[in-house]
Design goal:
This is LPXTG cell wall anchor domain-containing protein. By secondary structure, the protein is α+β, with helices and mostly antiparallel strands. It has 2 helices and 11 strands, in the order αβββββββββββα. Strands 1, 2, 3, 4, 5, 6, 7, 8, 9, 10 and 11 form an 11-stranded antiparallel sheet that branches. A hairpin with a 2-residue loop joins strand 2 (36-44) and strand 3 (47-62).
């Protein structure tokens, strides 16, 4: 075998190792998020109202838990009178499914701008902290929305049995299994904050390390083969 042919083969081996590492990184599991249309039927002090809003739920790893944010892409319900700045306070519950059951309370800041009379009320992003009690895939589905304004309370309930807006593959702090069962009650504490990006960071970091190991192993093989060939010559 000529030295030039040998060089081509060793280069091909190095590229194959690099591609293998890249493939591992690309295969890193990510949270599955799907915007779902939710048909909210609202009971207001002046009667029943309804509106459909696409709901987006995102999650990001935060310490031993996840920061969950629920976003409304369209307004829901309305008020017969103008709601001044800061007059409306929204909150909601997100239903948990899959490896866990129960609900997660989320809340957001009051309206930053006045809401004109008889116009859809734009709900601010609602956030809460979710701490897994079990390991496995957990789904997050829009639940009841509550709007408090001017001393009144409006309750909006999803009427179309929406599908989950988010699925996370989580691991509990205690390393619990994926066996079924109710987690019992609330799984988090509401908190305000900006909309986070989705992504289980721990899994991505672990798989990135594995991809790097594959790449280094390929490079080490190339060096060994090169030195062996030079010694033989």
């Amino acid at each position: 075998m000529s030295y030039r042919t040998y060089q081509k083969r060793t280069t091909a081996l190095a590229l194959a190792a690099a591609l293998a590492g890249s493939g591992v990184l690309m295969a890193a599991p990510a949270a599955q998020a799907d915007v779902q249309d939710v048909n909210y039927q609202c009971k207001t002090p002046i009667g029943n109202k309804g509106a459909v809003s696409p709901i987006d739920i995102k999650g990001v790893k935060s310490g031993s838990g996840y920061k969950i944010t629920m976003s409304f892409q369209k307004g829901v319900s309305s008020s017969p009178v103008e709601l001044g700045k800061g007059a409306m306070k929204p909150s909601a519950v997100i239903k948990l499914g899959g490896a866990e059951s129960g609900s997660l309370p989320v809340s957001g800041p009051p309206n930053a701008e006045a809401v004109p009379a008889n116009t859809p009320i734009k709900i601010s992003d609602l956030s809460g902290t979710y701490t897994p009690a079990k390991s496995g895939k957990v789904t997050f589905t829009a639940g009841v929305l509550t709007i408090k304004a001017l001393g009144t309370t409006t309750t909006c309930t999803p009427a179309n049995s929406p599908k989950p807006s988010l699925t996370l593959d989580v691991k509990s702090a205690g390393g619990g299994g994926t066996s079924g069962g109710s987690s019992g009650g609330s799984q988090g504490t509401p908190s305000g904050g900006e909309l986070p990006q989705t992504g289980p960071e721990d899994s991505a970091i672990a798989l990135g390390t594995l991809g790097g190991t594959v790449l280094l192993a390929g490079a080490a093989g190339v060096l060994w083969l090169t030195r062996r060939n030079q010694a033989a010559r």
